[in-house]
């Protein structure tokens, strides 16, 4: 796995578009290998009769379940490699994304940015401690830059989803988002008449998510800037379920719905914010009923 990551990182470090694309494809292939079960040929099943559709095509690979991942050697190796700076995929993808943004917009470059954002989402879900990177202003600002109106709607939508993944269960990152006027950036985009309908839908979904009460942080960054284990379900397979005093203190930096409603009401009409809160309490858009 180190050899594959080494080749991928070499390509991601390039300024050449085709090489960056190759690096992204290598990372995508690795994540797919970890997350998907091996496809089986339909001809191996004695009960399945050949048809024109399955005669020449193998069964599609299926996503592995969380218990499968916990005992999967490839996932365990990947997770352990992510604990160090040298092999951390999220860090490399963010560095590449930063260069792509600085390069300027064109069709091919936008596709590379979209691919990088999708992979960042996947890596953060597989290795939650990597979310600690977004407690740093440089990386949070990178996402906020990508929701600016100068970017195409597809990038704005993908960035909003990446932002949700970076903030979920991580109040430390949410405080960084707020400190950098992230709420102002989101609400300004929502109020902009030129914002596309698809982006506005994603913005409403983001505001629903933001208003949800918070739980203590999953990842944390150590004094050495390293990444530490998460108490999430994925991390428990490595015995990382405990919290030290510092983590408990950081976990108290949370906001409830009322506090967030007050902040949001400073940027949007109060009746709009109240409607969002009513929807959260009655419609349970995330499958959770809030009392």
Automatic annotation (TrEMBL):
Q: Where do the segments described as Disordered lie?
A: 38-67, 236-259
Q: Which Pfam families does the UniProt record give?
A: CDC14
What InterPro entries would the database entry show? Cell_div_Cdc14
Q: Where is the composition biased (Basic and acidic residues)?
A: 242-259
Q: Which GO terms describe its biological process?
A: cell division
Comp. bias regions, Low complexity: 39-52
Protein origin, superkingdom: Eukaryota
Entry keywords, A to Z: Cell cycle, Cell division
Keyword Metal-binding part of the UniProt annotation: no
Q: Identify this protein by name.
A: Putative cell division control protein
Q: Which organism is it from?
A: Coniochaeta ligniaria NRRL 30616
